[in-house]
Known about the structure:
Elements: H1 2-23, H2 32-35, H3 49-81
Amino acid sequence: xxxxxxxxxRLNKAATTQGVIKAxxxxxxxxxxxxxxxxxxxxxxxxxLRSVLVRERGQLDKANARVGRCGQFYDDVKSKYGKSP
Length: 85
């Protein structure tokens, strides 16, 4: 019986040590740019519809570029710190 208690104690100690090691990983801060919202393009009274659409598409392009940068940031973090199941 002493052998099984000793084995259990060693397993518990090893599990605790592994937990401490894994818990000590400090992830980098999420970029502030990834939290920013992209506003709609301003609509000026009397503006031509086509120019409003062009400006709105430009805002969408900015938002999509941000999504790409933030996705790349996450992929980079995951490759460095993440574990596959």
